[in-house]
Amino acid sequence: MDVKDSIAKLLAENGGLLRLKPAWVSRVFLPPGKRLGLPDDAYDVGERGFITERWIGSTTEAENPIHTQDEGLSFINTDGGPDITLKAAVEALPDEIMGADYASTHKGLGRLPKIFDNADRLPFHIHQRQQDAEKIGKKSKEESYYFPPGVPLGPHPETFFGLHPFIVRQNRKDVIAKYLEDWENTDRLLALSRAYINMPDDGFHLPPGILHAPGSALTIELQEDSDVSGMFQGKLAHTLLDKSVLTRDIPPEELEELGMMAAVEQLDWEANGDPYFYENHHTPPVILEGGRAAGCEEWWIFYNTRKYSGTKLILRPGASIKSVDRGAYNILVWNGEGTFGGLPIKSGDHVLGEIMVTAARARAGVNVVNMGTEDLFIIKFFGPDINDDAPALKRFA
Length: 397
Fold this sequence. Notes:
Elements lengths: L2 H12 L2 E3 L3 E5 L22 E6 L30 H7 L1 H5 L1 H6 L6 E5 L8 E2 L3 H4 L9 E5 L10 E4 L3 H5 L3 H9 L12 E4 L4 E5 L5 E2 L5 E5 L6 E2 L3 E2 L2 E2 L3 H4 L4 H7 L2 H4 L4 H4 L4 H5 L4 E8 L2 E7 L6 E7 L4 E4 L5 E7 L1 E4 L2 E4 L7 E4 L1 H6 L1 E5 L5 E7 L15
Antiparallel strand pairs: 1-22, 2-3, 3-4, 4-11, 5-12, 6-9, 6-11, 7-8, 7-10, 13-14, 15-16, 16-17, 17-24, 18-23, 19-22, 19-24, 20-21, 20-23
C-alpha cells in the first residue's frame, strides 16, 4: 500500500484525524534542561550534542552540523504500518489534509511548532528575513514563544531582545561587527541588549532579523517552517562554538566582500532598536471572542502575525465541548487526559499526546471531553492565513 492509500485509510478510520509521534531534535549549543519527559540517558546523543527540542506536527527537517536523516520530521502513528512522515502525507494528499481551497494557495502547512528545553540561556542570534534567506534558497523564520505554567524556569529565565536604542539611533553597526571579529568574547554583546523575564503563562512575538537570546524557561514555540539562523554569540560559559554557526546562512560572496558586516546587514536595524520593544512584542493570553463556555476556556497565545496562530483550550474535569475551527491544525496535549474526536489523549504520553486535524474535520467540529481529575490543557497550532481574527497588538511608536 502506498503513502496515499495508507493515509487515506487512516483518515477514513479516524474521521479526519492522524495520530503523530514526537520528533526529537539535537543541538550542540547547550546541555538539555531534561524537561521533555525522556529517560535521563536519552538526552546525550554523542557528537550530535543533546536532545533539547521536541518538534510537534513538523514537516521541516532540522539543519544541524551532523545531518541525521529525517531529524525534525514528525512521523504518523500507523499502528504498525509503514513509516510515513507528516510531510509525505501532506504532499500526497494536500486537498484532503489542508482543504482544496487552502492547498491551491499554500504549498504546505507552513508552520513549525516545537518545545525547546535548554539548561541555560541560548546564544544571542537572529533568524534571517525573507530578503536574506531567499538568497540561499531558504525561507525566513518568524517565531513566537509561550512559557507554560507549572514547569521549572531554569537558572536564567530571562530573554535578551534587540539592541539599546542609542546603538541604532547612532547607526553604530561597526560596534556589532567589532564584537563579531573578536569571536571568543562575543558573549559581551549582551551588554548592548535588554533582558525580559520569562513569566509563566506569558509570551512574545518575534519577527525575523531581531537579535535574541532565549532564556532557560521551557518554551513552546510556533514559527514559520524554517531552520535558518545566525549565531552572534560564539562563547557560552566555557564553550566556544565554531564560527560557522554565524556564517552558515550568509552568501559566501557577501561574506568575502563585507566580512563581519555581512552578518550585521542581516539585522532588521530599526526593529532591533525599538524603544517600545516590550509593548510591541509582548503577547499575553487573550480570550477568544465567545471563548468561554461551561467549564471551558480558549485563549489566543500565538498571535500578532498572519504567518501562524495558536490557542490554548482548557477544560475543567468532567467538561466537554465541540471545538470548531476554520482550517487544519495539530494539537499537543499539555496536561490532563480525555478524548479528542473519540480518540484517547493524555499528557506526558508520547503515543497519545499529538494529533493532526484535517481542515474538513476542523470545520465539522471535534468533540473534546475531559475524563480526568485535572484540567485538560490542549494547545492548537495553525498555519498561515487560517485565523484572520487573531488579535494584533496596538503599535507603539
